[in-house]
Amino acid sequence: MTPYAEKMQKTIDNLTADYATIRAGRANPHIVDKIKVDYYGSPTNLQSVANVSVPEARTLMITPWEASMVKVIEKAILGSDLGITPNNDGKSVILNFPELTEERRKELAKDIKKKGEEAKVAIRNTRRDANDAVKKQSKAGEISEDELADQEDEIQKTTDKFIAEVDKLVDSKTKEIMTV
Question: Are 11 and 124 in contact (CB under 8 A)?
């Protein structure tokens, strides 16, 4: 795989990870992936200081390994963009996810589409960089005009493949959100 195809694949991987954090009416442990807690003065991933489980379809339970972390985790969740107020029972933090309203589903669908467009832009930027690199090789006399055309064609095919993958991800996540 060329370095440019690897960059495009990383864009797809990032989009997939982003989509995992978008909730679809069900509790998903990946929703808290990006939340950092203050663990003895250093920002640490929530999963590194607590166990995240799903006891019921709409409930996420975060049980820290140290009881003193309950308040810190609660504070981190309140400061995040989850939009859910945590409850605590002294030993663990509980997040109850409300049923998604039609309006919220449409909002999430727009957000999904926006993230998909951003991924496409990143892929197209990578294509531009790849094309610039082969044009430089051509100007320097390292490759012939035919090789230049072949490589540009290959770059376009790779780009099309990754753009189609983004479209597929956007469609499947939108369907998931709209049919919960």
Answer: no
Q: Is pTM, for the whole model, over 0.85?
A: no
Tokens of 82: 């989850």
Contact call for residues 59 and 96 (beta carbons, < 8 A): yes
Distance CA 99, CA 81 (A): 18
Please tell me the distance from the alpha carbon of residue 104 to that of residue 102, in angstroms, as a whole number: 5
Q: Which residues contact 134 (CB under 8 A, 6 or more apart)?
A: 143, 148, 151, 152, 155
From residue 165, how far is each of 4, 71, 120, 121, 158 by CA, in Å?
A: 16, 41, 10, 13, 11
Count, residues in the chain? 180
C-alpha to C-alpha distance for 153 and 54, rounded to whole angstroms: 47
Give 82-138 pLDDT, tens digit per residue.
777 888 888 888 888 777 778 878 888 898 999 999 999 999 999 999 999 999 988
Q: In the numeric block, which tokens belong to residue 142?
A: 């390292």
Contact between 166 and 119 under an 8 Å Cβ cutoff? The reply is yes
What letter would DSSP give residue 142? S
How many helices, marked H, and strands, marked E, lie in the chain?
4, 6
